[in-house]
Amino acid sequence: MSVLVYTESEQGSFKKIALEVASYAKAVANQLGTTVTAVTINTEDTSALANYGVDKVLKVSHDQLSNFNAKGYAAVIKQAAEKEAAKVIIVSSSANSKYLAPLLAIDLNAGYVTNVIEAPESTSPFTVKRNAFTNKAFELTQINTDIKIVSISNNSFGLVENNAQATAEDFSPSIPDLTVTVESVDKATDKVSIADAEIVVSGGRGLKGPENWGMIEELADVLGAATACSKPVSDLGWRPHAEHVGQTGKPVASNLYIAIGISGAIQHLAGINASKVKVVINNDADAPFFKAADYGVVGDAFEVVPQLIEKLKAF
Ligand code: FAD
Protein backbone atom coordinates (compact mmCIF):
# COMPACT_ATOMS: atom_id res chain seq x y z
CA MET A 1 0.00 0.00 0.00
CA SER A 2 1.55 3.29 -1.06
CA VAL A 3 0.38 6.88 -1.24
CA LEU A 4 -0.42 7.65 -4.87
CA VAL A 5 0.22 11.05 -6.34
CA TYR A 6 -0.80 12.40 -9.74
CA THR A 7 2.02 14.63 -10.97
CA GLU A 8 1.03 17.06 -13.70
CA SER A 9 3.42 18.15 -16.39
CA GLU A 10 3.43 20.65 -19.21
CA GLN A 11 5.52 20.26 -22.35
CA GLY A 12 7.56 17.50 -20.78
CA SER A 13 8.38 19.27 -17.48
CA PHE A 14 6.67 18.89 -14.15
CA LYS A 15 4.64 21.84 -12.96
CA LYS A 16 5.58 23.29 -9.59
CA ILE A 17 2.30 22.00 -8.17
CA ALA A 18 3.33 18.47 -9.17
CA LEU A 19 6.41 18.75 -7.00
CA GLU A 20 4.33 20.27 -4.21
CA VAL A 21 1.84 17.37 -4.24
CA ALA A 22 4.79 14.96 -4.26
CA SER A 23 6.21 16.76 -1.19
CA TYR A 24 2.85 16.52 0.52
CA ALA A 25 2.47 12.85 -0.41
CA LYS A 26 5.84 12.12 1.20
CA ALA A 27 4.69 13.73 4.45
CA VAL A 28 1.54 11.57 4.41
CA ALA A 29 3.54 8.45 3.53
CA ASN A 30 5.92 9.11 6.43
CA GLN A 31 2.97 9.36 8.79
CA LEU A 32 1.53 6.11 7.44
CA GLY A 33 4.92 4.37 7.32
CA THR A 34 4.71 3.69 3.59
CA THR A 35 6.09 4.89 0.24
CA VAL A 36 5.03 7.32 -2.51
CA THR A 37 4.15 6.22 -6.03
CA ALA A 38 3.69 8.89 -8.71
CA VAL A 39 1.70 8.49 -11.91
CA THR A 40 3.04 10.48 -14.84
CA ILE A 41 1.34 10.82 -18.20
CA ASN A 42 3.41 11.39 -21.33
CA THR A 43 6.39 12.77 -19.38
CA GLU A 44 9.70 11.34 -20.54
CA ASP A 45 12.08 12.67 -17.88
CA THR A 46 10.74 11.88 -14.41
CA SER A 47 14.02 12.23 -12.50
CA ALA A 48 12.91 15.44 -10.72
CA LEU A 49 10.32 13.53 -8.72
CA ALA A 50 12.86 11.64 -6.62
CA ASN A 51 14.06 14.96 -5.17
CA TYR A 52 10.63 15.48 -3.67
CA GLY A 53 10.20 12.09 -2.06
CA VAL A 54 8.76 9.89 -4.80
CA ASP A 55 9.89 6.28 -4.40
CA LYS A 56 8.35 4.80 -7.52
CA VAL A 57 7.14 6.26 -10.82
CA LEU A 58 4.49 4.65 -13.02
CA LYS A 59 5.11 6.10 -16.47
CA VAL A 60 2.15 6.13 -18.82
CA SER A 61 2.63 7.02 -22.49
CA HIS A 62 -0.33 7.12 -24.79
CA ASP A 63 -1.20 9.17 -27.88
CA GLN A 64 -4.81 9.50 -26.81
CA LEU A 65 -3.69 11.20 -23.61
CA SER A 66 -1.56 13.88 -25.26
CA ASN A 67 -4.28 16.40 -24.40
CA PHE A 68 -5.94 16.42 -21.01
CA ASN A 69 -9.09 14.34 -20.88
CA ALA A 70 -10.70 13.94 -17.46
CA LYS A 71 -12.27 10.57 -18.28
CA GLY A 72 -9.03 9.15 -19.71
CA TYR A 73 -6.78 10.55 -16.97
CA ALA A 74 -9.14 9.40 -14.21
CA ALA A 75 -9.12 5.88 -15.71
CA VAL A 76 -5.31 5.84 -15.65
CA ILE A 77 -5.08 7.01 -12.04
CA LYS A 78 -7.77 4.56 -10.95
CA GLN A 79 -5.86 1.63 -12.45
CA ALA A 80 -2.63 2.88 -10.90
CA ALA A 81 -4.37 3.12 -7.51
CA GLU A 82 -5.63 -0.45 -7.87
CA LYS A 83 -2.20 -1.70 -8.91
CA GLU A 84 -0.54 -0.05 -5.91
CA ALA A 85 -3.44 -0.80 -3.52
CA ALA A 86 -3.29 2.91 -2.71
CA LYS A 87 -5.57 4.11 0.07
CA VAL A 88 -4.59 7.77 -0.18
CA ILE A 89 -4.42 9.66 -3.48
CA ILE A 90 -3.05 13.19 -3.63
CA VAL A 91 -3.77 15.67 -6.43
CA SER A 92 -3.29 19.40 -6.88
CA SER A 93 -5.98 22.09 -7.05
CA SER A 94 -5.39 22.73 -10.75
CA ALA A 95 -8.34 23.03 -13.12
CA ASN A 96 -7.51 19.60 -14.57
CA SER A 97 -7.41 17.96 -11.16
CA LYS A 98 -10.74 19.56 -10.30
CA TYR A 99 -12.19 17.81 -13.34
CA LEU A 100 -10.71 14.41 -12.79
CA ALA A 101 -10.76 14.01 -8.99
CA PRO A 102 -14.57 13.83 -8.66
CA LEU A 103 -14.67 11.18 -11.43
CA LEU A 104 -11.97 9.25 -9.64
CA ALA A 105 -13.83 9.56 -6.34
CA ILE A 106 -16.95 8.09 -7.90
CA ASP A 107 -15.03 5.27 -9.60
CA LEU A 108 -13.17 4.33 -6.41
CA ASN A 109 -16.02 5.05 -4.02
CA ALA A 110 -13.58 7.38 -2.27
CA GLY A 111 -14.07 10.40 -0.04
CA TYR A 112 -12.67 13.54 -1.68
CA VAL A 113 -11.57 16.59 0.28
CA THR A 114 -10.39 19.74 -1.46
CA ASN A 115 -8.18 22.71 -0.56
CA VAL A 116 -6.10 20.94 2.05
CA ILE A 117 -3.32 23.14 3.43
CA GLU A 118 -1.32 21.04 5.89
CA ALA A 119 -0.13 17.49 6.42
CA PRO A 120 -2.84 15.40 8.13
CA GLU A 121 -3.53 16.22 11.77
CA SER A 122 -4.05 12.53 12.24
CA THR A 123 -4.09 9.47 10.00
CA SER A 124 -6.44 7.47 12.24
CA PRO A 125 -9.03 8.80 11.82
CA PHE A 126 -7.70 10.50 8.69
CA THR A 127 -8.13 14.20 9.47
CA VAL A 128 -6.97 17.09 7.32
CA LYS A 129 -7.01 20.86 7.66
CA ARG A 130 -8.57 22.65 4.70
CA ASN A 131 -9.43 26.17 3.64
CA ALA A 132 -13.12 26.98 3.81
CA PHE A 133 -15.41 29.92 3.06
CA THR A 134 -13.19 31.31 0.26
CA ASN A 135 -10.12 31.06 2.49
CA LYS A 136 -11.65 33.17 5.28
CA ALA A 137 -11.63 30.21 7.64
CA PHE A 138 -10.25 26.71 7.91
CA GLU A 139 -11.78 23.49 9.11
CA LEU A 140 -10.66 20.05 10.15
CA THR A 141 -12.27 17.36 8.02
CA GLN A 142 -12.28 13.68 8.74
CA ILE A 143 -12.36 11.25 5.78
CA ASN A 144 -13.89 7.95 6.77
CA THR A 145 -13.92 6.08 3.45
CA ASP A 146 -11.45 3.30 2.79
CA ILE A 147 -9.88 5.22 -0.09
CA LYS A 148 -9.24 8.93 0.40
CA ILE A 149 -8.56 11.58 -2.23
CA VAL A 150 -7.03 14.85 -1.10
CA SER A 151 -6.40 17.93 -3.22
CA ILE A 152 -3.76 20.34 -1.98
CA SER A 153 -4.37 24.06 -2.07
CA ASN A 154 -1.63 25.28 -4.41
CA ASN A 155 1.32 27.01 -2.68
CA SER A 156 0.14 26.00 0.77
CA PHE A 157 2.41 23.09 1.66
CA GLY A 158 5.44 24.23 -0.34
CA LEU A 159 8.27 22.20 -1.83
CA VAL A 160 10.17 19.86 0.50
CA GLU A 161 13.29 18.16 -0.82
CA ASN A 162 13.59 14.54 0.20
CA ASN A 163 16.08 12.85 -2.11
CA ALA A 164 14.42 9.47 -2.42
CA GLN A 165 15.71 6.84 -4.82
CA ALA A 166 12.90 6.58 -7.34
CA THR A 167 12.45 3.55 -9.54
CA ALA A 168 10.54 4.02 -12.77
CA GLU A 169 8.41 1.47 -14.57
CA ASP A 170 6.27 1.66 -17.69
CA PHE A 171 2.61 1.25 -16.96
CA SER A 172 0.05 0.45 -19.67
CA PRO A 173 -3.47 0.85 -18.30
CA SER A 174 -6.43 0.33 -20.59
CA ILE A 175 -7.75 3.60 -21.97
CA PRO A 176 -11.51 3.97 -22.31
CA ASP A 177 -13.12 5.16 -25.51
CA LEU A 178 -12.55 8.92 -25.42
CA THR A 179 -14.58 9.71 -28.53
CA VAL A 180 -17.14 12.39 -27.79
CA THR A 181 -20.31 12.37 -29.86
CA VAL A 182 -22.09 15.68 -29.91
CA GLU A 183 -25.75 15.35 -30.73
CA SER A 184 -27.75 18.44 -31.49
CA VAL A 185 -31.32 18.33 -30.31
CA ASP A 186 -33.62 21.21 -31.13
CA LYS A 187 -36.12 21.27 -28.31
CA ALA A 188 -38.27 23.97 -29.85
CA THR A 189 -41.87 22.90 -30.14
CA ASP A 190 -42.50 25.20 -33.10
CA LYS A 191 -43.03 23.70 -36.50
CA VAL A 192 -40.71 26.26 -38.10
CA SER A 193 -37.30 26.69 -36.46
CA ILE A 194 -36.43 30.20 -35.28
CA ALA A 195 -33.16 30.19 -37.19
CA ASP A 196 -34.85 29.41 -40.53
CA ALA A 197 -38.04 31.39 -40.03
CA GLU A 198 -39.08 34.16 -42.39
CA ILE A 199 -41.62 35.30 -39.80
CA VAL A 200 -41.35 35.05 -36.00
CA VAL A 201 -44.18 35.65 -33.56
CA SER A 202 -42.75 36.34 -30.13
CA GLY A 203 -44.46 36.69 -26.76
CA GLY A 204 -43.34 38.38 -23.56
CA ARG A 205 -44.32 38.60 -19.91
CA GLY A 206 -47.23 40.82 -20.93
CA LEU A 207 -49.09 37.62 -21.89
CA LYS A 208 -49.44 36.86 -18.15
CA GLY A 209 -49.03 33.09 -18.30
CA PRO A 210 -48.45 29.96 -20.42
CA GLU A 211 -52.18 29.35 -20.71
CA ASN A 212 -52.40 32.39 -23.00
CA TRP A 213 -50.01 31.09 -25.66
CA GLY A 214 -52.79 29.54 -27.68
CA MET A 215 -53.36 32.80 -29.57
CA ILE A 216 -49.59 33.19 -30.20
CA GLU A 217 -49.44 29.71 -31.72
CA GLU A 218 -52.57 30.32 -33.74
CA LEU A 219 -51.15 33.57 -35.12
CA ALA A 220 -47.90 31.78 -35.95
CA ASP A 221 -49.85 28.99 -37.72
CA VAL A 222 -51.79 31.45 -39.82
CA LEU A 223 -48.57 33.21 -40.86
CA GLY A 224 -46.43 30.06 -41.22
CA ALA A 225 -44.20 31.55 -38.54
CA ALA A 226 -41.99 30.27 -35.74
CA THR A 227 -42.84 31.10 -32.14
CA ALA A 228 -40.33 32.76 -29.83
CA CYS A 229 -40.33 34.45 -26.45
CA SER A 230 -38.45 36.83 -24.17
CA LYS A 231 -36.02 35.53 -21.55
CA PRO A 232 -38.26 35.83 -18.48
CA VAL A 233 -40.91 33.81 -20.26
CA SER A 234 -38.55 30.86 -20.70
CA ASP A 235 -37.02 31.40 -17.25
CA LEU A 236 -40.50 31.13 -15.78
CA GLY A 237 -41.02 27.90 -17.68
CA TRP A 238 -43.92 29.28 -19.70
CA ARG A 239 -42.12 28.33 -22.90
CA PRO A 240 -39.13 26.06 -23.72
CA HIS A 241 -35.66 27.62 -23.48
CA ALA A 242 -35.13 26.92 -27.17
CA GLU A 243 -37.61 29.73 -27.89
CA HIS A 244 -35.74 32.35 -25.88
CA VAL A 245 -34.39 35.06 -28.19
CA GLY A 246 -32.07 37.95 -27.45
CA GLN A 247 -28.55 38.61 -26.29
CA THR A 248 -28.41 35.42 -24.23
CA GLY A 249 -30.81 33.45 -26.41
CA LYS A 250 -31.11 32.72 -30.10
CA PRO A 251 -30.51 35.51 -32.61
CA VAL A 252 -33.37 36.25 -34.98
CA ALA A 253 -32.88 37.62 -38.49
CA SER A 254 -36.36 37.15 -39.91
CA ASN A 255 -38.15 39.28 -42.48
CA LEU A 256 -40.92 40.00 -40.00
CA TYR A 257 -40.68 39.94 -36.18
CA ILE A 258 -43.91 40.45 -34.25
CA ALA A 259 -43.34 41.23 -30.56
CA ILE A 260 -46.40 40.85 -28.35
CA GLY A 261 -46.29 41.99 -24.74
CA ILE A 262 -42.53 42.46 -24.84
CA SER A 263 -41.11 45.70 -23.38
CA GLY A 264 -38.08 45.95 -25.69
CA ALA A 265 -35.21 45.75 -23.20
CA ILE A 266 -31.79 46.30 -24.76
CA GLN A 267 -30.86 42.64 -24.21
CA HIS A 268 -33.93 41.50 -26.12
CA LEU A 269 -33.37 43.98 -28.97
CA ALA A 270 -29.73 42.87 -29.25
CA GLY A 271 -30.92 39.51 -30.53
CA ILE A 272 -33.65 40.59 -32.90
CA ASN A 273 -32.23 43.82 -34.41
CA ALA A 274 -31.21 42.00 -37.58
CA SER A 275 -34.87 41.35 -38.41
CA LYS A 276 -36.07 43.49 -41.31
CA VAL A 277 -39.54 44.58 -40.19
CA LYS A 278 -40.47 44.77 -36.51
CA VAL A 279 -44.06 45.03 -35.36
CA VAL A 280 -44.91 45.66 -31.71
CA ILE A 281 -48.17 45.08 -29.86
CA ASN A 282 -48.03 46.56 -26.38
CA ASN A 283 -50.58 48.30 -24.17
CA ASP A 284 -48.00 50.80 -22.88
CA ALA A 285 -47.34 53.55 -25.44
CA ASP A 286 -44.08 54.32 -23.63
CA ALA A 287 -42.70 50.78 -23.96
CA PRO A 288 -39.12 51.13 -25.32
CA PHE A 289 -39.86 48.62 -28.11
CA PHE A 290 -41.87 51.24 -30.00
CA LYS A 291 -38.65 53.21 -30.63
CA ALA A 292 -37.10 50.20 -32.37
CA ALA A 293 -40.28 49.17 -34.22
CA ASP A 294 -41.35 49.80 -37.81
CA TYR A 295 -45.03 49.39 -36.93
CA GLY A 296 -46.71 49.46 -33.56
CA VAL A 297 -50.13 48.84 -32.11
CA VAL A 298 -50.83 50.38 -28.72
CA GLY A 299 -53.42 48.05 -27.31
CA ASP A 300 -54.27 45.08 -25.20
CA ALA A 301 -52.79 41.93 -26.76
CA PHE A 302 -55.84 39.95 -25.67
CA GLU A 303 -58.00 42.16 -27.88
CA VAL A 304 -55.59 42.93 -30.72
CA VAL A 305 -54.21 39.45 -31.44
CA PRO A 306 -57.58 37.64 -31.85
CA GLN A 307 -58.72 40.40 -34.24
CA LEU A 308 -55.48 40.11 -36.19
CA ILE A 309 -55.91 36.34 -36.50
CA GLU A 310 -59.48 36.82 -37.70
CA LYS A 311 -58.43 39.36 -40.34
CA LEU A 312 -55.54 37.22 -41.55
CA LYS A 313 -57.76 34.15 -41.82
CA ALA A 314 -60.22 36.10 -43.91
CA PHE A 315 -57.43 37.46 -46.11
P1 FAD B 1 -41.47 42.89 -19.15
O1 FAD B 1 -40.28 43.69 -19.07
O2 FAD B 1 -42.18 42.52 -17.93
O3 FAD B 1 -42.44 43.52 -20.19
C1 FAD B 1 -43.74 43.09 -20.41
C2 FAD B 1 -44.36 44.05 -21.41
O4 FAD B 1 -45.66 43.61 -21.70
C3 FAD B 1 -44.47 45.50 -20.89
O5 FAD B 1 -43.90 46.38 -21.84
C4 FAD B 1 -45.97 45.71 -20.75
O6 FAD B 1 -46.35 47.04 -21.08
C5 FAD B 1 -46.51 44.75 -21.78
N1 FAD B 1 -47.88 44.29 -21.49
C6 FAD B 1 -48.42 43.97 -20.29
N2 FAD B 1 -49.71 43.57 -20.44
C7 FAD B 1 -49.98 43.65 -21.76
C8 FAD B 1 -51.13 43.39 -22.53
N3 FAD B 1 -52.26 42.94 -21.97
N4 FAD B 1 -51.07 43.61 -23.85
C9 FAD B 1 -49.95 44.05 -24.43
N5 FAD B 1 -48.81 44.32 -23.76
C10 FAD B 1 -48.82 44.10 -22.43
N6 FAD B 1 -34.29 39.37 -22.25
C11 FAD B 1 -34.60 38.76 -23.41
O7 FAD B 1 -35.74 38.79 -23.86
N7 FAD B 1 -33.62 38.09 -24.10
C12 FAD B 1 -32.34 38.00 -23.68
O8 FAD B 1 -31.51 37.35 -24.34
C13 FAD B 1 -31.99 38.63 -22.43
N8 FAD B 1 -30.73 38.57 -21.97
C14 FAD B 1 -30.44 39.22 -20.82
C15 FAD B 1 -29.12 39.22 -20.36
C16 FAD B 1 -28.79 39.90 -19.21
C17 FAD B 1 -27.36 39.88 -18.74
C18 FAD B 1 -29.79 40.57 -18.49
C19 FAD B 1 -29.44 41.33 -17.25
C20 FAD B 1 -31.09 40.58 -18.93
C21 FAD B 1 -31.44 39.90 -20.10
N9 FAD B 1 -32.74 39.88 -20.55
C22 FAD B 1 -33.02 39.31 -21.74
C23 FAD B 1 -33.87 40.42 -19.75
C24 FAD B 1 -34.27 41.81 -20.21
O9 FAD B 1 -33.47 42.79 -19.55
C25 FAD B 1 -35.73 42.06 -19.85
O10 FAD B 1 -35.91 41.90 -18.46
C26 FAD B 1 -36.69 41.15 -20.59
O11 FAD B 1 -36.46 41.18 -21.97
C27 FAD B 1 -38.13 41.60 -20.32
O12 FAD B 1 -39.00 40.66 -20.84
P2 FAD B 1 -40.46 41.06 -21.24
O13 FAD B 1 -40.42 42.26 -22.14
O14 FAD B 1 -41.17 39.85 -21.71
O15 FAD B 1 -41.12 41.43 -19.82
TrEMBL record:
GO molecular function, one term: flavin adenine dinucleotide binding
Domain of life: Bacteria
GO biological-process terms attached to the record: fatty acid beta-oxidation using acyl-CoA dehydrogenase
Record text on cofactor binding: Binds 1 FAD per dimer.
Positions annotated to bind FAD: R205, G261, I262, S263, G264, A265, I266, Q267, H268, N282
Protein name, as recorded: Electron transfer flavoprotein subunit alpha/FixB family protein
Domain Electron transfer flavoprotein alpha/beta-subunit N-terminal: 3-192
Cofactor(s) the protein needs: FAD
Family: Belongs to the ETF alpha-subunit/FixB family.
Keywords: Electron transport, FAD, Flavoprotein, Transport
Lineage: Bacteria, Pseudomonadati, Bacteroidota, Flavobacteriia, Flavobacteriales
